[in-house]
C-alpha cells in the first residue's frame, strides 16, 4: 500500500500536500508534532516518512534518530524537510538518519516522482506488510513551572548585549562587552534570558540582593551557541544549595539540554563539573511552544538561525517582552542570491515571506522588543546567510509589528561604542521615516527598563 506519513506543525502544508498526494493514489497520514509523529510511524510503518526539522514536542533531528533506531521502521524511506537553508541543517538531518533532504517550499512534482520511485524500489508494498491505519495524535498538556520570590517592580535589565564573543576594552565601556543575558522581574518571578557572560555579574548582584534568602531563577535558553551558555559556570547562585535554578530550553539536534551544559564544564575545559555545583539545578526540555512560569505566560517560536534556535515572548501583568537575539529574515536571506546559492524562485520567496510573517505574528504588539541587529546594511551584504540581521531589517520588522520600544541587540564584536551609537541613531531616523511611534535604543549593559514604559535607571 502507498502509505506516507507527513510530520509537520504547519497546518496549511499538511492539508495542501495531503490533498495533493491523496489525489494521486497515496494514503496520507499526518501528525502535527514530533511525539505524535513518532507514535504514528511506529504504528503505521509507512513506505515514506516526511519529517519537518523544527517542531514542538520533539524536533525533527531527534525524530529522525529515533526512527532509525526502530527495527520495525528500518525499511521506511525518511525524508527530512526544512525551510532553513543553512548548510548545517541539511548536514545534521542526514547525519540523524534521513535518506533525503528537501528544502521548503516543497516542489510537488519532484516530490511525487521521488515517492513513486521509492514505492517501486520497495516492491510496491508497505514496510513489513504493515497496513495503513489512522491514529489520533496525542499532544502533551502545557507545561507549568513554579518560580521565584516577589521583587518590588516589573522591569527588564540588560546584563550582556554582545554577540559571538565577549569584547572587553576601552572601546566598549559605554555599551558593554558581555555576551547575551537579560534579567526580567515580573509578577513575582525572576526570569533570565540566556546565559552568556553577562550572567556572571547578574549572579553577583543577586547574591548581594538576596543575602541569606534563597534565590529562585527561571533561566530560558534560546540555543546552545557559546555566547548564550558560556557564562553559566560562573553564575554564583548555582553554587549555593539554598538556591533553585530551573533551566528551560529545547533539545539540541544531538544532545540534551543538560548534556550541552555539562559538556562545557567537563575536564579539561573547566575545573568543576555540572553535577558538582551545589545549587539545586533542574533542566526542563520544553515540549510545547507555550508554558507557564508562575503567573507569567511564556511562548517560544523557532527562528531563522543555524541550529535549533527559538525566540521567547513573556506576557506579564504590566506588559510583554519579545526576545529574538539571533535571527535573520528568511526573505532577505533568500532574495539576496539565496544566501550565496542559486537565485531563489518565486515559490521560494513566497515561502520565505510566510516564514517571516510567522515571526512577525509572534512579536506583534510587543511592549519591549529585543532583536538581533548585528550589522549595518553594508556589512550584511557580505554576511548573508550567517544567521544575523542588519539594523534596517530589524527596524522594519519592529515597525510592522507595531512594537512600542525596540532595543538593538547582539552587537558585533568588531563594533565599538561609537559605531553602535551611530547605528542606533540611524535606526531612530528609519523609525521616524516610517512615521510610527516606535522608540529605538541600543541595548547596553546596566540599562533597566520598566514594564511597560519609562527607563528607570
What class, by secondary structure content?
alpha/beta
Mean pLDDT: 88
- Taking the alpha carbons of the first and last residues, their distance comes to 67 Å
Number of strands: 20
Count the helices. How many? 14
Helix and strand arrangement:
Elements (H helix, E strand, L loop, with lengths): L2 E5 L3 H12 L4 E5 L2 H11 L3 E5 L7 H10 L7 E6 L4 H9 L4 E4 L4 H14 L21 E3 L9 E6 L20 E6 L2 E5 L5 H12 L5 E5 L5 H4 L14 E6 L7 H7 L16 E6 L4 E4 L2 E7 L7 E7 L2 E6 L5 H6 L1 H4 L5 H18 L4 E5 L4 H5 L9 H10 L4 E5 L7 H17 L5 E4 L5 E3 L7
Parallel strand pairs: 1-2, 1-3, 3-4, 4-5, 6-13, 9-10, 10-11, 11-12, 16-17, 17-18, 18-19
Antiparallel strand pairs: 7-8, 7-20, 8-9, 13-14, 14-15, 15-16
Helix pairs in contact: 2-3, 13-14
Give the gist of this structure.
By secondary structure, this protein is an alpha/beta fold. 30% of the residues lie in helices and 23% in strands.
Q: Would you kindly provide a written description of the structure presented here, covering whatever features stand out?
A:
- With 457 residues, this protein is an alpha/beta fold.
- Helices cover 30% and strands 23% of the residues.
- It has 14 helices and 20 strands.
- It has an 8-stranded mixed β-sheet. Strands 12-11-10-9-8-7-20 form a 7-stranded mixed β-sheet.
- Helix 13 (391-400) packs parallel to helix 14.
- The chain is globular and about 70 Å long.
- Residues 128-152 and 453-457 have low confidence and may be disordered.
